[in-house]
Amino acid sequence: MSRRTRKGQAGSAILVAAVAIVAAAGVTGAWLGQRARLAPVSFHRPKPTQAAPQIPAPLPTVQQTQPEPALPAAPVPPATPEPAIRPSLPPGQPPLAPRYRVAIIFDDAGGSLDDVEKIIAIGRPVAVAVLPGLAYSADVALRAREAGLEVLLHLPLESEDGRAMGPGAISDGMSDAEIRAAVRSDLASVRSAVGINNHMGSKGTADRRVMRAVLDVAKESRLYFIDSRTSRATAAEEVALELGVRTSARGIFLDNENEEAAIREQIRRLILLARERGGVIAIGHAQRLTSGILAGMLEDFDRAGMAIVPPSLLVR
């Protein structure tokens, strides 16, 4: 075989081999492409040779927007007026901060121990005005004082119609000295007294001389005086202020009629009057129905925001 022939054969062999390699590569590529379509490919990252520092992921960026315009403020409703009637409180417990004050005096005490017990049972600081020289005057005054109630000397003064005045009475026929002596004697039978108010006295309270003599003793004994106002012509308050005696006057009678309906109506009027004035002194009577009716109406005072107080808190 010639040299040229051997070279041609070698070239043909090389060409055949190259074609075979290309064909094999195509078959292999097609097979791998098919596998890629049939199975998921997993990528494995190489493990780092040194731990990378943990960097916190950045917070998501919040898109800045223009703030919404503020809505106009809702109109503030006007303050609701305080109700005229307040919730009731337990009996015997006055409101913590009452707006109104009333003082209630029970006149004509001293003739019965039972009467004063009914008054004490009310459970509020009412007052008891004791007539001098009666069978139980001293005992009633002491019992009321022991129960924490204020006691007044219920001083009999002369009336325009000439009615009998009872023991220890003061009349315009007495001298100033006699009047002073009688008032001191009356106080001795009502030793617990911290004040004086008049029993009857439509004539006596209108007489400035008589009242000056009476109030001289009130001043020396440091007692207050409450004018029961049995006469429009009374000068008692005016004279008391001139002498520097603490004083005030009755605003309403509770039991001129000793009937339940009438007394209830007067107690309601007392509450209305106290709402107008802020403070009122009322007078009832120990032997009438008043104490029991008042005890049953205490919630009316509590709901109206009224405290029942001793008379000494309403004198000036």
Write a compact overview of the structure shown.
With 316 residues, this protein is α/β, with parallel strands linked by helices.
Walk me through the structure.
The chain has helices at 3-38, 113-120, 137-146, 176-189, 208-220, 236-243, 260-277, 290-296, 298-303; strands spanning 100-109, 127-130, 150-157, 193-200, 224-227, 247-249, 252-253, 279-285, 306-308. The protein is α/β, with parallel strands linked by helices. The chain has a domain at 100-313: Glycoside hydrolase/deacetylase (TIM Barrel, Alpha-Beta Barrel). Strands 1, 2, 3, 4, 5, 6, 7, 8 and 9 form a nine-stranded parallel sheet that branches. Helix 3 (137-146) links the parallel strand 2 and strand 3. Mean pLDDT is 81; it is low at 1-11 and 15-90.
Number of helices: 9
CATH fold group of the domain at 100-313: TIM Barrel
Distance between the termini: 159 Å
Q: What is the level 1 CATH name of the domain at 100-313?
A: Alpha Beta
CATH superfamily assignment of the domain at 100-313?
A: Glycoside hydrolase/deacetylase
Largest sheet: 9 strands, parallel
| Percent in helix | 25-40%
The percentage of residues in β strands lies in: 15-25%
Mean of the pLDDT scores?
81
At CATH's second level, what is the architecture of the domain at 100-313? Alpha-Beta Barrel
The parts where pLDDT drops under 50 for at least 5 residues are 1-11, 15-90
Number of strands: 9
Q: What's the gyration radius in Å?
A: 53 Å
Describe the global form: globular
Order of helices and strands: HEHEHEHEHEHEEHEHHE
The class by helix and strand makeup works out as alpha/beta
